UniProtKB/TrEMBL annotation:
Protein name: Competence protein CoiA
Pfam families attached to this UniProt entry: CoiA_N (PF25164), CoiA_nuc (PF06054)
Competence protein CoiA-like N-terminal domain segment(s): 17-53
Competence protein CoiA nuclease-like domain location: 58-189
Amino acid sequence: MLYAQIDQKLVSANEVLVTQANFRCPGCGAQVRYRHGQLNVAHFAHISARCAFEAEPESAAHLMGKLQLYQLGTQIGEAQVEVVFSTIKQRADVVVEYKKNKYILEYQCSPISRTQVKQRTRAYQQLGYEVIWLLGPKYQQSKIRKSLVAKFNDALLIFYNYKTQKCTLTANFNEVDFQSLQSISQEYELDQLLQVIKIYKKRVFWQDSPTTKQVLIQQSIKIQQQLVRKNKEWLQIQQECYQVKHNLSGVPWICHPKKSMPLGLAMPHILWRSRCVLLLEHYPLETIFAVSKLQNMFVKQGCWLTIDERLCRYIVNQFIIELVSNQVLTRIGPGKLELICYPEWYANWQFKTNSLKLN
Ligand SMILES: [Zn+2]
């Protein structure tokens, strides 16, 4: 931490005159020690036990980034560093007031659990702050996974690199089963970043691209591989398929989304759509569904990330649109759909991919 308490007063590690004194943590009140290394900025560190107020153990990167974000904050508005919120037992890295909004900037350099992120975010929100999680270099260097986006609970990720002093916003996430996550990244100054985030709160963006024939064939082969490798997630649905004499490796083409999808499903789209198709087969042809009922039925077949409800709705509706255009369902009157045909299953992936090559 950059500030400690001594004789009821706050002192900055940059300004201490005596390095050996009875310094205390402004949060928990425990004793802290002054430290200043060659690589590290001057700071205070707890002597024993971890502090309940801290979101993460202090590292050189964290100290440096926090200090920089505070300085950047002072350039755009009112800023404070290491703000202790006693009622919620949390210490915010940086608090910034910018254009009448109160922000908390949390610079996260070490691993953190989803529960912790949620709990800390909610506590600050209840006090009227908007929380911006800025992820450190370790996060920025690794490949972005769905779980990371879901952890920080938004349809976007923000990184802060203390070496370049730049904020990077990564958003417009897009996924195709068995392919790496697509996204768009752009660097911003802190004030620009806060404005761009506002736009993203109002609307979600993603760029979709059509799934090519080549990708469809790759996906079919990958499904087969998952089954051969006895991947639990896939084997479980295969069991459901066997019960109705289907083979998951010959799953109907309708289960492969025709374009890339925004983030929303925790499971692969193909698996979710397979479950929906299996469910439809429980109903006799000519069954009439209210669209809202069908949407709910489909939602229940999935395991969802709690990213943005709008994205989940889009994913479900896109599937229904494809079912209609493939004449599995047909629209009859407002808000009603009739089941007119079951999607075609193939005996195995070879038959399936051959059917595509012939078309
Ligand atoms: Zn403490």
